[in-house]
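Posting for a labmate who doesn't have an account.
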Amino acid sequence: FAPMAASTTAKRLLRNLLCKIQRHPRRFGTLAAVTSGGLLFCKGILANAKLETKAVGKETKIANWSNTHSVTGMLYQPETLEELETLMQMCHENNVKLRPVGAGISPNGIGFSSKGMVNLSKMNNLISIDAGKMQVTVQAGMRVSELVDALQSHGLTLPNYASIKEQEIGGFVQAGAHGTGALIPPLDDTVVSMKIVTPARGTLNVSRESHPHLLDALKVGLGAFGVVAEVTIQCVKRHNLEEHTFTATRKQIVENHEKWLRDNKHIRYMWIPYTDTVVVVTNNPTPKPRNLDDSEEDEDADGERLRPFRNLLVSSLKKISVEQREKLGMDFDLIDSLNFAECRDWLLKFAALDTNHVKGINKAEASFWRNSEGKAVGDSSEMLQFECGGEQLVYEVAFPTGTLDNLQPAVERKGRTVEARTQDVAFVLDILDEVERRGFPAPAPIEQRWTRASKSRMSPAASPNLKDVFSWVGVVMYLPVKDSKTRNAITSSFKEYAKVVREVGSALPSDIYPHWGKIEMPKAQKELENDRKWLAKRYPVDLFTALRKDLDPKNILGNELVDAAFPRDD
């Protein structure tokens, strides 16, 4: 192909041939298979690019963290902004899919596409730090953990963190990640400017100063407008947090919630189904020095906290044969080496859908947390992370719950076992009532967090009133085994769990809306149409679609999930 590139006629013929191969791969058989790997290599020549080897995609299999979604497709990994821009131009001109994918952590695989993906993990540099403004500019392929390390020597940190730090910054912003704190917005709202490479409009530099409304429209863009290449984030001074972990009853949560939400910078609840135990974790700024290492329990104390789990494991193992133990990869000798999350995973291997068995596990978990009350001090980036457990299915939703000064009162619900004062707490109590009434095998926890409203138009926490507080509630079921039959059964059961959440949420004046990394669009046409109407009540769909058509007229950035949620008529 290289000698041919000098000829304009040859370029035209080659371009036509490649387009035909792409559109009708079955007609070209082996040629199509051979050409697919070098497709953009050829197009790089056609565009007189200097990317001949670096732009070649590699067929790659990607799976999300819980192995609930996977995809095999061409993956491109540019190393510079110029390479990304040329890659985008070539894909746009030749109608080749180029779906942005970050670390691939999202439970729903929102970045996946079998038709072509681009990942910026090789564009992960720190570009600049403005110490005066406390702002950092980074390439979007940098992971949150890498950014934390880079900021430490400058005495800076991010205002908040999600439960983990392995996301790439681009995906962090585009999917709308969040932490917890009623006065702290989701992390997308800490972005003050970004550079986004679009198919039709090239590279756009959008900032709070130059294009505030456009920035708010593009920030939580689901990867549908372009590939975010660089991001400038508003930071805060590095600080320590003192974490306090304790348990409360459901009634105590009702009585104290408004005060606790006001008094604590960061707070989250972990409700344990089929028990009267709620784990409360608060984090507040402190001048105290880090003592995480000092606060670690010795083995005897840790063993005592885990004793209910381990006793349940021993009794459960005794009920099955040696062959079954080997199949499950479990042995008596390994029990004392397991941590809290591993104990739960092992116990769920026996019967994840047996409600009585799950009740026993939840009871053991409640005992574990009651014996784990205490305080610890560490860097904010350490303290705001937490153990999420093993492979799992997650459904998380957000809804407005008033302001700190005036939380919305609970909607009335017949048969509520614990009377609630505020809408956010009542929502979880109603889920628990419904789960326990149906005898559903719901493991712990039901997690609840809060954020301030976001200016990002597509954020589940979007609101023009930045005093608004949003509650985020997530339910979970674990996938402790690799057996596909069992995993499918758990997945089917989890869909029913998500329906319970939707049913309870539909009674709220605002309804509820899922985290973009955790939404699943239905396959059945009628259900799909209903979900589209549901989303259209919350989000500026006309604006979202108009921007997509302008920035990506050929829809090379879309994938099955985004196109299902927001179909295009072009």
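Reply:
Got it, the structure tokens are right above this. The radius of gyration is 25 Å.
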